């Protein structure tokens, strides 16, 4: 039933959200069955993931962002790093508090914090956003004339990708080197790094004889660090900004029926359409049987799993959702008035731990059994009810904020 103001009723909203989540579930189930039948083994999953990250996801980014991006919109995105910092800070404190209550040791606490501070900001939220953008009329932004599903999906993906790039940098630095590894190994690694750095400093001071040489060395060092953080999705964001900033190029790519539009743009669009289904197939395949996981449960396994779910999907929601609601109600600035951003922020607050954490724990052979259990509870048990609740609450908050 549709209410008198044109919005969906709660039952209709729940049903629409359930259908969107069920689409994700069906595709993931196909990936799971492919894994169980041996069609998609672990090596195949890695190859598809690499193909997605290096080719198909950049095409999705360029296809969605370059069409609707503008310099004015980029200025409004300063909210994203602020929201990220608050979310990660609250999740970190939640992990510390819950671990203390359960009496977990240092390594177990690091595991819980790692699952709490690294949510899934890619496969699941992007898929849900792509589906909900075309089915929820409440997501239209009044500031954009004739707003439609394509624009809503583009903005949602932009918000998620900015969050994801900051999050990925933190995962592969702080996550893999500190949180998701045994504390003894981390300390040994830090000691070796400090000794290496000290030796390099002495060597540099002995061999570098001019200020220009020192400056060049430091410049090259920082440039190498910058390049090491770059990846195909980041390059896609960069080229999207360039294409959106040059109006003749943007028109040639996305408007009319010229050569670039009929060839390059169509090719990119077709590859972009493949990205989301493949991400979900690999997501489902991750839950299939694997002969490579040989680690066994620890005596605190159940407490660790419960603490991880509590500190990632429950406590941050209790703390942050009222804060987000009050902010949207009282601060009519930037993208805070965009319903798509409100939905993204709610989905990220209660998103399950990132699937990529399985890779990080496998690299360091760190609680591999526990991370599988955490992901099972997060995705199979919690995702559907949490998503329905978050969509319903976010649209209720939106209606309250606009009164």
Question: How do the helices and strands line up, and which of them pair or pack?
Answer:
Layout (H helix, E strand, L loop, with lengths): L9 H27 L5 H27 L2 H5 L3 H23 L4 H12 L5 H10 L16 H31 L3 H25 L3 H19 L2 H14 L1 H8 L4 H27 L15 H30 L8 H11 L7 H8 L3 H34 L2
Helix pairs in contact: 1-6, 1-12, 1-16, 2-7, 2-10, 2-12, 4-5, 4-13, 5-13, 6-7, 6-12, 13-14, 13-16, 14-16
Summary?
The protein is mainly α and 403 residues long. The protein has 16 helices and no strands. The chain is globular, with a radius of gyration of 23 Å.
What do you see in this structure?
- The structure is a single chain.
- The protein has 403 residues and is mainly α.
- It is built from 16 helices and no strands.
- It has helices at 10-36, 42-68, 71-75, 79-101, 106-117, 123-132, 149-179, 183-207, 211-229, 232-245, 247-254, 259-285, 301-330, 339-349, 357-364, 368-401.
- Helix 4 packs antiparallel against helix 13 (301-330).
- The protein is globular.
- Residues 1-6 and 196-203 have low confidence and may be disordered.
